[in-house]
């Protein structure tokens, strides 16, 4: 028997903080790691996985003939082998074949060979890149259940409460038939409910909730995180902190939409805040907004909307000092004065209604820029949230101060075993390896794709773009084909909805304001003549199923109205059509007014683009697309640099805190 990889089993029921220790690599170690990662791309282990799939297929044919009693005996034998020998080739093959046959009997779903391929990749600690519609949710059950049957606690991490609850409920009967318990952690659950869910064999949980619960546990532990200290507490203390912890440890993590969670969202650390006092700062914040409104862009401050950066100039600092003179003692301190006006400028120029946040029931609700969904219960730190509340005329909440924070990079590196799945990973394969030691493996589709990708069209101005979009929607709609239109923001989706109303065309609108009806709306997007307008990420994770009539008409047509900051996310939208070998088509209708062309360099590229005659066709179209790709690649490099810088800072901070005996 061969053991291709090994995962440590839980040391004991009370070792609730099992995790990989932080390690700050030297420059030489990073260079060696990059070199090793490059070599590994040529030795992906694909042949070994194909051989394993063949073994599973052979066992599956045997298990199909087994009675329920015989399958129960097989299950007991598989669990015994996994507990005794670990993940040997024979034990994994038997486990996968067992899960596959149980799924067929319980769910009526039989894992395709490509799903077996993806399951093995995840069990080996890889990111499985599977096309949209290939069934990643079912694929994850193979790795999750195999690990759980070896008594390893498993976290299946997803991007929102809906997908988390749906997947736990849908796959729950399969896990229970295998003798496993399933938990589900979502926002607004009470601590006891979370603790119970995390104690299950397999726990479905959102990425943000998981990391925040981890930070809450760190606050509970204080400066005593050693497992031996927790054991001593358990033996000698009547009140153990370990009983108040939520998470058992970081053993085996499967990250759904791995590129979104591990890459896109890794630019911002996660922070737990507490109330920082009850002083009334309402007048102070109003004065800061008034001062910010008098400052001139270009002279007093420099703003790059594309890169979301703002810098106050020396002239601006002098203006702030002059305008704050005589406003009261709260304006006397230099740091407080400048930082408060800086946040006022951010609130005015970088955070926009129906793009970055909503106002619902008199409260500011943040829109997740990566998913287009509302982030329940979240707030910006260090007074920015209160500044935006003041700007929008909302009641002020208490100012918050940071109690604990951690980056996604630092957190997910702590898992003893980490793997993932996504539809788009190849563009960030290097970063996944360098940061998380995760190898990316492209999984062959179950059926060859039939999606038609039409050439992008770029218009000089936004007006021309929206005219072209409405014309295309009407033309495709007349054919009877369903249309899904992706927009970048809530505001853009509502603008297009208004254009559709002017044409008298029925449509469904899906953005952060309709998040409760997300699944129902997106599931109907494949019906004859359906027109669905959605923010780019809305509905991700929900299949758009086509009727036979729609397939005969040519399938779903997807229109993108704006390029995203990363080409991967554009591919995610395109992947909504042509799933599982269905027919479909995709096109992008764009303009030089789009967000991609904000910022100093972006505006220069846009100016050049508008000089091109007929930028949406012929040679002009070729030149326009080149400018567009250049702007996007430049932004991708900038965000890559931001993530690296955050990771470096987070590691440095972790080293200092560790040295001082403190936590995150």
Structural class: alpha/beta
Give the biggest beta sheet: 7 strands, parallel
Q: Tell how many strands the DSSP assignment holds.
A: 20
Distance between the termini: 43 Å
Per CATH, the class of the largest domain reads Alpha Beta
> How do the strands of the widest beta sheet line up side by side?
3-4-2-5-12-1-13
Architecture (CATH level 2) name of the largest domain: 3-Layer(aba) Sandwich
Radius of gyration: 26 Å
Q: Beta fraction of the residues?
A: 5-15%
Number of structural units classed as domains: 3
Basic shape: globular
Describe the model.
The protein is of the alpha/beta class and 664 residues long. It has three domains: 27-270 and 408-442, Rossmann fold (3-Layer(aba) Sandwich); 293-397, Pre-protein croslinking domain of SecA, CATH 3.90.1440.10; 450-629, Rossmann fold (3-Layer(aba) Sandwich), CATH 3.40.50. The protein is 47% helix and 14% strand. It is built from 24 helices and 20 strands. Strand 19 (556-560), helix 22 (567-574) and strand 20 form a beta-alpha-beta unit. Helix 2 (46-64) crosses helix 4, helix 12 (282-294) crosses helix 14 and helix 13 (314-324) crosses helix 14. 45% of the residues are buried. Residues 1-6, 8-14, 229-239 and 657-663 have low confidence and may be disordered.
């Amino acid at each position: 028997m061969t053991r291709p990889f090994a995962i440590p089993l839980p040391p004991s029921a009370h070792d609730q903080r099992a995790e990989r220790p932080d390690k700050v690599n030297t420059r030489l170690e990073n260079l060696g790691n990059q070199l090793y990662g490059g070599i590994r791309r040529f030795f992906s282990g694909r042949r070994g996985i194909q051989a394993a799939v063949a073994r599973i297929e052979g066992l599956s044919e045997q298990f199909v003939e087994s009675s329920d009693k015989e399958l129960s005996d097989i299950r007991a034998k598989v669990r015994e082998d996994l507990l005794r020998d670990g993940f040997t080739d024979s034990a994994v093959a038997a486990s996968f074949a067992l899960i596959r046959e149980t799924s067929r009997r319980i769910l009526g779903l039989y894992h395709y060979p490509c799903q077996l391929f993806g399951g093995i990749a995840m069990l080996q600690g890889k990111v499985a890149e599977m096309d949209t519609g290939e069934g990643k949710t079912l694929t994850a059950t193979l790795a999750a259940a195999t690990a759980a049957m070896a008594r390893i606690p498993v976290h299946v991490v997803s991007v929102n409460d809906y997908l988390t609850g749906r997947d736990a409920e849908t796959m729950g009967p399969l896990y229970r038939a295998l003798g496993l318990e399933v938990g589900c952690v979502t926002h607004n659950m009470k601590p006891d409910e979370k603790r119970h869910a995390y104690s299950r064999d397999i726990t479905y949980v959102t990425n943000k909730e998981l990391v925040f619960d981890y930070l809450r546990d760190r606050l509970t532990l204080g400066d005593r995180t050693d497992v031996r200290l927790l054991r001593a507490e358990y033996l000698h203390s009547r009140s153990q902190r370990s009983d108040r912890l939520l998470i058992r440890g970081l053993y085996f993590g499967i990250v759904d939409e791995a590129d979104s969670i591990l890459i896109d969202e890794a630019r911002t650390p996660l922070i737990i805040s507490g109330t920082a006092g009850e002083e009334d700062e309402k007048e102070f914040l109003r004065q800061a907004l008034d001062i910010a409104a008098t400052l001139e862009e270009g002279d007093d401050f420099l703003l790059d909307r594309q890169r979301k950066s703002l810098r106050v100039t020396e002239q601006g600092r002098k203006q702030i000092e002059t305008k704050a003179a005589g406003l009261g003692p709260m304006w006397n301190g230099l740091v407080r004065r400048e930082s408060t006006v800086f946040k006022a400028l951010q609130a005015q120029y970088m955070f926009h209604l129906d793009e970055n946040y909503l106002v619902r029931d008199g409260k500011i609700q943040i829109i997740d820029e990566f998913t287009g969904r509302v982030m329940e219960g979240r707030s910006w730190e260090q007074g920015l949230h209160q500044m935006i509340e003041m700007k929008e005329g909302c009641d002020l909440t208490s100012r918050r101060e940071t109690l604990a924070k951690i980056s996604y990079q630092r957190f997910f590196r702590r898992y003893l075993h980490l793997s993932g799945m996504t539809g788009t990973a190849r563009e960030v394969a290097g970063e996944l390896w360098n940061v998380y030691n995760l190898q990316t493996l492209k999984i062959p589709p179950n059926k060859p794709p039939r999606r038609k990708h039409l050439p992008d069209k770029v218009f000089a101005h936004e007006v021309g773009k929206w005219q072209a979009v409405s014309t295309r929607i009407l033309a495709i709609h007349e054919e009877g084909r369903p249309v899904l239109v992706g927009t970048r923001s809530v505001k853009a989706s509502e603008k297009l909805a208004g254009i559709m109303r002017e044409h008298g065309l029925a449509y469904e609108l899906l953005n952060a304001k309709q998040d409760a009806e997300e699944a129902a709306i997106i599931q109907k997007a494949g019906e004859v003549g359906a027109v669905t307008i959605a923010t780019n990420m809305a509905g991700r994770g929900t299949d758009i199923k086509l009727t036979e009539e729609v397939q005969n008409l040519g399938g779903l047509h997807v229109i993108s109205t704006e390029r995203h900051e990363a080409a991967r996310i554009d591919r995610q939208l395109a992947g909504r059509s042509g799933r599982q070998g269905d027919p479909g088509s995709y096109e992008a209708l764009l303009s030089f007014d789009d967000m991609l062309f904000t910022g100093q360099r972006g505006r220069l590229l846009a100016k050049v683009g508008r000089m091109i005659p007929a930028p949406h066709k012929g040679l002009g179209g070729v030149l326009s697309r080149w400018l567009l790709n250049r702007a996007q690649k430049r932004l991708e490099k900038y965000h890559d640099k931001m993530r690296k810088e955050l990771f470096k800072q987070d590691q440095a901070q972790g080293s200092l805190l560790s040295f001082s005996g403190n936590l995150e």
